[in-house]
Amino acid sequence: MVSLTLQKVFSVIDRDLNSSIKLLKDFVAQPSVCATGEGVRDMAHMLGEVLKELGFNVSYHETPTKAPIIHAVLKGKGEKTLMFYNHYDVQPPDPLSEWESPPFEPVVRDGKLFGRGVNDNKGNIVARIAALKAVTEVFGESPLTVRFVIEGDEECSSRGFSGFIDECREELRADGCIWESGYVDKDGRLQMYAGMKGILYVELVARGAERDLHSSMGTIIPNPAWRLVWALSTIKGPDEKVLIEGFYDDVADPAPEDIRALEEVPFDEEFLKDLTGVKEFTKKATGLQLKIEHFFKPTATIDGLVSGYIGEGSKTVLPSRAVAKLDFRLVPNQDPHDIFEKLRQHLARHGFSDIEVKLLGAEHPGKSPINSEIAEVAAKAAERVYEKPPVLLPMTAGSGPFYHVANKLGVPTISAGIGYYDSKAHAPNENIRIEDFRKGIKHMAAVICMFAESRVS
Amino acid sequence: MVSLTLQKVFSVIDRDLNSSIKLLKDFVAQPSVCATGEGVRDMAHMLGEVLKELGFNVSYHETPTKAPIIHAVLKGKGEKTLMFYNHYDVQPPDPLSEWESPPFEPVVRDGKLFGRGVNDNKGNIVARIAALKAVTEVFGESPLTVRFVIEGDEECSSRGFSGFIDECREELRADGCIWESGYVDKDGRLQMYAGMKGILYVELVARGAERDLHSSMGTIIPNPAWRLVWALSTIKGPDEKVLIEGFYDDVADPAPEDIRALEEVPFDEEFLKDLTGVKEFTKKATGLQLKIEHFFKPTATIDGLVSGYIGEGSKTVLPSRAVAKLDFRLVPNQDPHDIFEKLRQHLARHGFSDIEVKLLGAEHPGKSPINSEIAEVAAKAAERVYEKPPVLLPMTAGSGPFYHVANKLGVPTISAGIGYYDSKAHAPNENIRIEDFRKGIKHMAAVICMFAESRVS
Known about the structure:
2 domains, alpha/beta, Aminopeptidase, Alpha-Beta Plaits, 13 helices
């Protein structure tokens, strides 16, 4: 019976595809960059109005950032509640010069939609809205209660999300949660994950003279760019080992079931090398070891470096300031605040207490069982829509506030979404394939229908 | 007799001071940034036209850069020839936000003229022109032949100047040369120097993936920012010692007469600390040792660093590229091309042959006797105008094509100019004091008159 009704739902989705694309374009055309705050409030308002029109009860929760968290509930038939976690903020679009079309002017080329946020994460918001519209049209009402939690600071380490979860814990009950995004791999299989790394994002600031000086003063005036280089070189060495004392203390080895799941995960090393232009992976890792490195090991990454003259040609300047941005991707059971303290102590111990360490973001690693009810329903629905079994990842290499939903609230969680292997999230020319968007909407519709009918375990 | 005539010349200089300031403002309002090429040709043309109006025979020598070298000769009475070396290019004005008034909109505030190039080096060009105009008005003609050599690439390591000197060696005869600039110290004494360091300016470029990636890929994809940090940390250590094999091989110890001259050089350490906001000099140097470090030791300075995200807040990006700009200030008898080769070999030896090393500028160190005829005349003239003995430096910490004039052409050379200790050359809010400008013009007029009358030794 589900099957026949689903066919009707899918027809409605096909019929309305162009208006779904239109809605996504409207969302993408509204910049919403959490790093600068640009447009986040306008975006939240635009999104809230769309949800209200669908009958949602929408509330905005203010946070310490400019971006409110949207909590929207649509009561449906029966007792079951499905949560959707998403975010309406996007990464900054730089470097602008590398975009083939302007990032906030979405455009379809060769069956793909280009623009900042088409994949991460506005396309997924629209897919879930479009799925719910189609299901509601066919069923007359939603077969379950739908709860949207949509924040506006995910790309800036979700400042304020933890506070929202603590404050609204009682209202946020759900039987399962579909996480923000997912990707179709090059074999056409949907990748879904049941855990996310944590993150610690810091800025190191070294200071020298009060202003930039002529570089001939490099004889006797301390140079903050050198101080920063020397400090950074104590944090990680050319063997890729993080040298902060105690950094690896709380790292849990992957469990046997995680290893078994990883063994099933396809990972085309040659394809990834071709895609990125890289000749060899770090530590020369390969096979299962490469997958363990990628999904279960913490990192220390320089995200940005800036000091002195950065234009074309030469300028002889002794910089007054040098800044590095670093992120540490953390795995169970590392704690971002503990790692932050260890980093500060490490720098002090190595003679760099003059370097300021700013905490820009912190997120715990989070993990949900790979065999929960929602995970099994979402996997079955994926197999039906994509006509191939999904790839189930026990963890992903990315970070997000997964911990708060999966571990703090205790809502079983699995990810799914409309991206593909070359969606260029966080990079210039971010894009989705229209056909993935269509399938992603159908997948969400199938999840709503099938989760409504499945027994609460 | 010189004395009485000089008084007349000085009166003319006072009378015309405002029109001299006007000419300088016109020059400063014309950007001429060699690093980008912006405005250099327009500046060369404007300057050439001013010299032609004064009766100079002006020729433009093309170089591999956009900026031609101006060679301008005004025949005078007698056999003697005085050369002026200057440059019409300026440093880039960034960081723009730190300027209190726009860099290319010169303005007088509190007896000071602000703008990019007012000191380095356009103010000195105008001072020499104004001096010559006044002398010519009083004498009816110039008492000696004046030869201007004004290049447009000094801030970019004078690319093309060496070729010009080689090509025009026969035409460039002179009995003495006044070098581009000089500064009044806080005691009101003119600082003059008889030598300059050389320079090697390089750019190091590390490359990773073909484009910026999501920083979660930091697990397995090489990060060029880390490669650059590790490579840089092999070039100089926290003890400030340059670690390039053979770097110090050709460094000449200062001669006894250089040490004697240095002992006479005032160097107010507390004042310099206050001015720069620095608590301690590198290597904790002080006294004569500090002066030797500053004037007679080579450096390795990071002038610029850039990689990945450099904006406000956080962006989780694995950079595809990391760039460092470095300059090495060289002392007799280091050779910039030899040091460049040693740097390349050093990086290869330490496993960093993947990092590209671009040569952006190279200049030999140069030195002239501190007791040449022109040096003695210029010192006497300074004592007369400034009413205090000048400070004679055997070397300066800065670099320039001094070598080509003083050593290749063999023209005895000494510097003099209109700046002061807080002129902020190469930095935001570059400025001169109007009273220094007035005295600098008078000093140049006195040099012209006194050098014309002194015997060729």
